[in-house]
Design brief:
By secondary structure, the chain is mainly α. 63% of the residues lie in helices and 0% in strands. It is elongated, with a radius of gyration of 23 Å. The longest helix has 32 residues.
């Protein structure tokens, strides 16, 4: 359906429906097959959920870069003990797993979007937040170990400096990400 510049979707569809003598019809978005609510022309919740999915995917990419660019290579790094590696990285894997699951579930919700019945609040369970709380409690130890490694281990410091370019972020800033998840989202 094409329309004049500035004409609403509702008006354009109404015109076609009258020309074709249609008494009832539904409009689906081509990109997601979501049903379009013609009374508002825009489903604000749908747009918010799409934005949430985009942001969660970016967050997930950053979590992956922590593991791919820093954690995996550091596993083989001689100056970082297995215990220190666990302190820095082990609590990220459950968060990444939940982020991956969340992206899949949000994407499923978008693909089957119904403005009247689709809800996503149940995706943010107590179990989801438990992993963030756990990471938050461990973060002072992570930060302390990082500070110690940066001040006493030149090999570690040089390794992180070289990896910074590949990750587009420092190890410090990436490890801070799960802590910076706004607390107000949990209430």
């Amino acid at each position: 359906v094409t329309s004049e510049h500035g004409q609403s979707v509702h008006d354009a569809v109404e015109t076609v429906a009258m020309e074709q003598k249609l008494t009832s019809y539904r409009i689906y978005l081509a990109s997601s097959k979501a049903l379009l609510d013609l009374h508002t022309d825009i489903d604000t919740r749908y747009n918010l959920v799409e934005t949430l999915l985009r942001r969660e995917k970016l967050y997930q990419e950053c979590l992956h870069s922590i593991l791919d660019v820093y954690a995996e290579p550091l596993r083989k790094f001689s100056s970082l003990s297995a215990a220190d590696h666990r302190v820095l990285f082990c609590s990220l894997e459950p968060i990444l797993s939940f982020s991956t699951t969340l992206c899949l579930k949000i994407n499923d919700a978008i693909q089957t979007w119904d403005p009247g019945t689709t809800r996503i609040g149940n995706l943010f369970s107590k179990q989801f937040w438990h992993h963030y709380d756990e990471y938050y409690l461990r973060y002072p130890t992570i930060r302390s170990l990082l500070k110690e490694k940066y001040t006493t281990d030149e090999e570690f410091t040089e390794f992180c400096r070289m990896r910074h370019g590949a990750a587009h972020h420092s190890l410090e800033s990436l490890l801070l990400l799960p802590v910076s998840v706004p607390k107000y989202l949990k209430k």
